[in-house]
Amino acid sequence: MRNATDIVKHVDFSQSRPAVQPPPASVDQGTAQVVNALFVELKSIFPAWRQAWPDDEALKRAKRSWIKGLMAAGIHTLEQIRFGLMTCRASGQDFAPSVGKFVEWCQPTAEQLGLPPAAKAFQEAARNSHPAVGQGARWTHPAVHHAAIEAGLSNLFRLNEDAGRKLFERNYVIACRMVAAGQPLREISKALPAEVSTPAKPETVTAELAKMRAALGRRS
Question: Which of 52, 75, 146, 171 is most open to solvent, judged by the fewest CB atoms within 10 Å of its CB?
Fold first, then answer.
């Protein structure tokens, strides 16, 4: 029986959009415990969960699908799961989400990271892009400054508001995901899509699975 590390090796985390991988033949007990505990949480949050998983067989299929989906999307830390469950509780929905929606909810917003929302960040960048501001520019967070620099202060100053906003927000989304992943802010390629994934070390995945088992287990 393969462990979580072996499963993760089947996913190419180096690509911004993970390639479709063949499903793992089996998962280790630790990974199964994490998913079982996660589903206990989901069933407690969404009263109409039986609409998605009406019987035990459907539930088993869903768990296998979720394991593949979470691994492929790089959801392998307790913090990511916490963000996902936090958004589940705040959604106010009765019906359980798909694995794709849950993966989306595991990505923290700028506000959840302690950063200004995109609209305010753009206003700050646009204000500081004026040549008269110069060295007196003040930035609320390095990610805002980084996104503005990558977009080009001169571009933000000369473009109309709509074009400048789109240019800045694209870079800001990527900068926020760098912050969420604990990465240093680095150069943003002009061709890089908004989805950014980070290679996960096998030992890190194993350690995070243990944390997730412990944390989710305490709630079940």
Answer: 52
